[in-house]
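Go through this one:
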Amino acid sequence: MAKHKLLAGLLVGGAAFAAYHALDLEQREALKDAARDRYNAFKDRAVDYAFYAADAADDFKEALNDKLEAKNDAPAWKTVPDEVNDEPADDIVLSSDQVADLPDDQPDADSDSSDAETTAPSDEDQPSDSAE
């Protein structure tokens, strides 16, 4: 597929080159002038759009600055007092030096197994299916 596109491009380019050299000198100059005019128009349009983008960015910056200034000029009942901002955050992070050591004496494994045996339901507690 790509080979076909390459071949087609070479053929079209060769045909354009042959057609250009088949033109007389005045037609070549007219073609060059037309291409130069289109290039200059495109360049002018690109510069205009660059200026439009710069103006839009400046307008956005001004609007943002106005919003930030209006935020600073807000009435006292809408602003948060500085004392509230000075409070520590709710997230408390401690280093390992500040954490108390856990107790080393853990319950014995034998007492855990005896508790499990006493709390396990017996066969007598289970409902029977023979009543159906």
